[in-house]
Hints:
Elements: E1 2-3, E2 43-47, E3 50-51, E4 57-60, E5 66-69, E6 77-85, E7 89-97, H1 125-142, E8 152-154, E9 164-171, E10 177-182, E11 189-191, H2 200-203, H3 206-214, E12 224-229, E13 234-240, H4 248-260, E14 263-269, E15 275-278, E16 286-289, E17 297-300, H5 311-325, E18 332-336, H6 344-349, E19 353-358, H7 361-373, E20 379-382, H8 390-398, E21 402-405, H9 413-421, E22 428-433, H10 436-448, E23 451-459, E24 469-476
Parallel strand pairs: 5-7, 8-23, 13-14, 18-19, 18-21, 19-20, 21-22
Antiparallel strand pairs: 1-7, 2-6, 3-4, 4-5, 6-7, 9-10, 9-12, 10-11, 12-13, 14-15, 16-17, 22-24, 23-24
Helix pairs in contact: 1-10, 9-10
The chain binds S-adenosylmethionine (SAM).
Amino acid sequence: MAMLGKKRPPRRQSGISGLARVPHGEKAPPESQAPEAQSDAAASTVTVERLAHDGRGVARSAAGKTLFVTQALPGERVEVAVHRTRKRFDEAHVKRRANDSPRRVTPPCAYFGRCGGCDLQHMALDAQREHKVAAVRELCARQGLELPADMEMLATRAEDYRRRARLGVNVDGQGRVLVGFRAAGSQRLVDIDRCHVLVPKLAALLAPLREVIQALEAPRRVGHVELVDTAGGCAITVRQPRPHANDAERWRAFADRLAAQGVALALLEGRDAPRLEWLGEPPALAETLALPGLAPLELGVAPGDFLQANAAVNAQMVARVMEWLAPSPGERYLDLFAGIGNFSLPAAAAGASVTAVEGHPAMVERLAANARRNGLDLRATRADLNVPGTAAALLDETAADALILDPPRAGAEAICRTLADAVSRPAQLAYVSCDPATLARDVARLTAGGYRIGQVAVADMFVHTAHMETLMLLEDIRQPGAS
Ligand SMILES: C[S@@+](CC[C@H](N)C(=O)[O-])C[C@H]1O[C@@H](n2cnc3c(N)ncnc32)[C@H](O)[C@@H]1O
């Protein structure tokens, strides 16, 4: 019998939305009191039946209540302790495991189980990927959507892939500085000096960062730290709402040390309108996007800009969207939630006439600069796409033949409602989503409004976590020429 750690794991929230039996968007009922005093399942033995969308095992207590069990796999018989009770389900962790699933592996990272950065490292890689495809399929099925039997998985390496990260910084009761990610579902910071998924250049910065913050006169003034590594350069941004004058020299000395390793350092200071100051030469942060049939594109990026976390999987994802849509000269494209031009630039490079819409003013400027940098002519415009009527006006104004939609986790419900009801609308739509539950909701609306699902792929952008990207091609069956 495998004995596991006695410590109760931190409480977790559903990372990926859509717990097995909680409809997406519904708030779970409030937690009851002390874990020890709760539930029939406070210490019981159960068999894990399946995985929830967030990767936790799902079992049933003796009284028939659903249990979500952290780090438990289907087929495993586990003694569990409940650490959170809800009205319709309990959340539990494993005290003892009677047997191991054949899909269980030794987690590659020593911090697994404590650090909230990764939650699937106990699953074999193929099992993680099968689970992601199954989660997309199941969430779509709940909305009445049937997906193709074979769904492509876009994936590359399983380690050293993450090129950006936001690290928390904390000082504990003994004055020790902690630098790392939050524990799952908790504000507690887990101090790390290695990371299995960060690109090596960023992982190597963890220990020196902690050292320099530990040496500050006012380490508590450091809010968080952002790391980004691109083909053009690597940078650390330190958020300090209220900097301490006596620490300025220490940061400068650290910036000099980093410069020798090709890493730039910036301080982001001030409360309401934070000011970014590079301590030394500003880096030439830029990613290169190499896609089949196109000359490599260079996209400048700045700290704080949205940048897809995994460069290799992003290239596959953009390539697949371009292959599906096949932009060509004379076609009009609308790219909504365009960021710094990840999809707009390739579509423009293929000859399409592109209108790119993004809400963040600095990113709109960067997108326009990126178009100029690559000798491309496109229209970059700022709009808040959550404002009712905005999408309808853009659709009218551009008369787009194709639409690219890549919203944040909340999805694009209002935009899809507009598309479903529109008389004149794009014949093709590529929806790229980081939340399969909101994707399923939105696509159900589109299919009810006369679009059909043409292609689906899942991208393992965040290996070892329950997160994923899903790509769908939708085609308007009302348009002439649609079969
Ligand atoms: C998932 S990112 C995708 C960015 C880009 N398509 C890419 O692949 O890099 C979503 C983008 O939507 C932007 N965004 C979020 N909410 C928005 C809103 N209400 N209106 C317009 N843009 C918004 C964010 O700034 C971000 O750049």
